[in-house]
Structures are given as structure tokens and as C-alpha cells.
């Protein structure tokens, strides 16, 4: 009986040791799991914060500095790789959209219409047409003749500094497409040439007038400006300019044109002879 109890005692001790080892191992695994889980969580949070920091504050401006990535002098920056990839992605998207929009415009619109839409917002209603010194003045259109002076028709409208934005031009007349109050202006550049040896150079009256064409049978005079010149006896030619402008109520399809007292004296320099209008309200 005593022998049986002594034999079972070592087995009980071994079982206790084994159970204790299992418990210690379980505690170790649990502690290790909790520790590494917490460390991984902190690493993920730190990584996320660092990525956001790369794209916030003053760092965002670096995305639009090509030299910061192409020259490579910021490669030691931990944010460099993130910003570099994002910079490349942004450039690809912008270039793709730009090419797509330009291809669509070139396909469905005339060349001069593309020029207007690219340079001027669609809501702008304005026009500035200038003289073209490279072209001779065309003959006057006699279809509409109940006005004083000679009508200027040789305007340039689709080449800088000239432009048309939601305003059209035909036969030297600006065509209004939206009713409202417009500021209308015009300047003409008179050049009187002389031959040397003439005994007398008389004064000459220079007149500029701005007319409006409506549904009324005759054009309506909006503005008139005149001056009488006294040419120098020593000069080979005389130069004078007349400018006038004002605000007027215009209706849809009204037309604006300019007449002068002597069209042969007009110098069609684009910076000196011009006509324009823009919507005020």
C-alpha cells in the first residue's frame, strides 16, 4: 500500500510541473500578443499621421514645384516618395484632361471660336476692333446711307489686340446680342499728308460720329466729335486723333458703326484707330 502511494507521487509532481509550464507559456503568449498588437497599432497611427503631414500645411505647395522632384535634392526627406508619386499622378491627370478638352474643342468648333472661348469667359460681353494697316479700306456699303460722313468698314476683329466676346461684326458694324446698358467708345487717327513746295496749308475740319442702327428706318446719331486743324507750314504731314465714349441703352440686334468726315485721311493703325463696346449692366 505504501509502495503504490510512493509510485504515484512522482507522476502527480510531473503533472503539476507540466500544468504550471503550460500556464506560464499561455501567459507569455498573451502578454506578447498584447504587446505587439499595441506596437503595431502605434506604428500604423504614426505612419498615417506622417502621410497626412506630407500633404498638409506648407508641404502641399511642394507638389507644384517640379524642381523639388526632378532635381532630387529632397530625396532624404521621408515624405519625398509620397509627394513624388502624387506629383506625377497629378501631372498625368491634368495633361490628360487638357488634351481631351482641346481635342473636343478643335473637333466641334471653328478656329476663331476656340480662340474666343479660351481667352475670354463665356459670360463676358465685350468687343474691341481695330484698324488693319495692312489692308486698304474697303469701299463703303451704300445699302444704308442715311447718315453723315463716310463709314469705316476695314476693322480687324479676330487677331490681337482685337477680340469679339458674345458680340458679332458685319459690314463694319458691331452687332449687339444682349440688351443692356453699354459703354461705347471709338478713336480715329487722322493723317494729312502734304507735298513740299506748296505755298499754303489750310485748316481742315475733322469729324467723327458714332451711329446706332435699330428697327427705326434711319440710323440714330449717338455721339459726335469735331476739331478744326491748323497744319504747320514746316511739316510734311499733320496728325490728329479724336476720341469719344459714353453709356447708352442698346437692344438685342442693334448695330454700332463709325463715320468720319474724310475716310482717305484715316490711318488704320491698330493702336490708334479702334471701336469698342462692353456691357455695363
TrEMBL record:
SMART domains: TNF (SM00207)
Domain of life: Eukaryota
Membrane topology, record value: Single-pass type II membrane protein
Matching PROSITE patterns: THD_1, THD_2
Biological process, per Gene Ontology: apoptotic process; cell surface receptor signaling pathway; immune response; positive regulation of canonical NF-kappaB signal transduction; positive regulation of extrinsic apoptotic signaling pathway
GO function terms (MF aspect): cytokine activity; metal ion binding; tumor necrosis factor receptor binding
PANTHER family: TUMOR NECROSIS FACTOR FAMILY MEMBER (PTHR11471), TUMOR NECROSIS FACTOR LIGAND SUPERFAMILY MEMBER 10 (PTHR11471:SF27)
Role summary: Cytokine that binds to TNFRSF10A/TRAILR1, TNFRSF10B/TRAILR2, TNFRSF10C/TRAILR3, TNFRSF10D/TRAILR4 and possibly also to TNFRSF11B/OPG. Induces apoptosis. Its activity may be modulated by binding to the decoy receptors TNFRSF10C/TRAILR3, TNFRSF10D/TRAILR4 and TNFRSF11B/OPG that cannot induce apoptosis.
Name of the protein described by the UniProt record: Tumor necrosis factor ligand superfamily member 10
Lineage: Eukaryota, Metazoa, Chordata, Craniata, Vertebrata
Gene: tnfsf10
